[in-house]
Amino acid sequence: MGTLITSLIVPARLHEKIRVESIQASMVVKQLLVDGNFEAISGRDWHVLLNDQAAHIPLPLNPRAEVLIREAGASMEGTVSGTAVFLGHGINGGDQDVPGHLLALAERLFEARLAA
Question: Are the C-beta atoms of 41 and 47 separated by less than 8 Å?
């Protein structure tokens, strides 16, 4: 079993709760969370994984993830679809725990209590 990292998972479906979850940073686990292969959008000290075929499948729009990405300062065009998995930047391109400031921003934006 590999090392666990803390992630912020933002489901596309609004009736599903945003949650903090410890996950293994393996490719298989990430693919399961986003329902397929993934691409990343990067912020200053974080990145978000999204299904790279979301426009073609199609997956439902994810307005909460889109708002969080923009409010956290990342520049992006277009919309976000499917489940979004937020992680922190680790050493040598790896993953680490999602930064606390991103969790705090999500709590403020979505009026949700997120325990890390």
Answer: yes
